[in-house]
Design a protein that fits this description.
The protein contains four helices and twelve strands. The chain has 256 residues and is an alpha+beta fold.
């Protein structure tokens, strides 16, 4: 089972840059995208044969949104965290398979001047972890997405100068640490302990070419799935967004 996650920063623009061709070439069983900025009916759909599409769009047009493209038919798909306060921005899709849940998440950005940090830290992060643990009582959980946080100093190029910037505040880092503390595994760090590996680069200052970036996109799994984890990777060569795709492979199937 191959999984891909990608913040596409506008799916319609990413399609013009070759998104559907990337999906075909990837051979992935499940592809989760964030920041679609579009409703399903607004997207020129060229879905490769065998895939099904599931969409969760924000109430506000052209904002946020998630989608999941899967070659494996889910038992059930649900949208949001089940709480109206958190579910207006299309940020979560959950697909249930016989052996685990797959949760696609686009975590709210704390914004410049940290205008949304309180909401993010005190409400969203708490509700998301509670949601994952509730699912985990039934079966193991795989979750992914743009979580809008660099967990440790090794996860961004300029840690010292970003200490109180959105995505690297103590509060946001604690939110991710709480996920790890609850048992979830950051799959990329199971294979790569070193620095210099990033998934997002500002579009200013030629940052991507100079690899001045942040690792804020993740695949995480319940501890019960650790024996199935084969590899995790970052596709830095794939363009079309200010983020790049991240991947993971699990042994076996989501079903049977």
């Amino acid at each position: 089972m191959t999984f891909i996650s990608w913040n596409v920063n506008g799916l319609r623009a990413c399609i013009k840059a070759g998104f559907w061709e990337f999906l075909r070439r990837s051979g992935a069983d499940i592809v989760c995208v964030q920041e679609t900025k579009a409703r399903a009916e607004e997207v020129p759909l060229d879905l490769p044969e065998g895939y099904s599409a599931f969409w969760n769009s924000a109430e506000k047009k052209g904002y946020s949104g998630t989608a999941m493209f899967t070659r494996i038919s889910p038992l059930k798909v649900s949208y949001g965290l089940g709480t109206p306060d958190h579910d207006k921005e299309g940020r979560v899709i959950t697909a249930e398979f016989p052996n685990y849940y797959v949760v696609n998440c686009y975590t709210p950005n704390s914004k410049r001047d940290l205008l949304r940090l309180d909401y993010r830290h005190k409400q969203w992060d708490v509700a998301f972890l509670r949601y994952l643990k509730k699912l985990e009582k039934k079966k193991p959980v795989v979750f992914c997405g743009d979580l809008n946080v660099a967990h440790k100093e090794i996860d961004l190029a300029n840690a010292k100068t970003n200490k109180r910037n959105a995505g690297f505040t103590d509060e946001e880092r604690q939110g991710f640490a709480n996920l790890i503390g609850a048992g979830f595994i950051d799959t990329f760090r199971e294979f790569e302990k070193g620095g210099g590996h990033y998934t997002w680069w500002t579009q200013r200052t030629d940052a991507r070419a100079r690899n001045i970036g942040w690792r804020i996109d993740y695949w995480c799994i319940s501890p019960a799935l650790r024996p199935l984890l084969k590899k995790a990777w970052i596709l830095t060569e794939i363009k079309g967004s200010d983020h790049c795709p991240v991947g993971m492979e699990l042994k076996g199937k989501a079903h049977g």
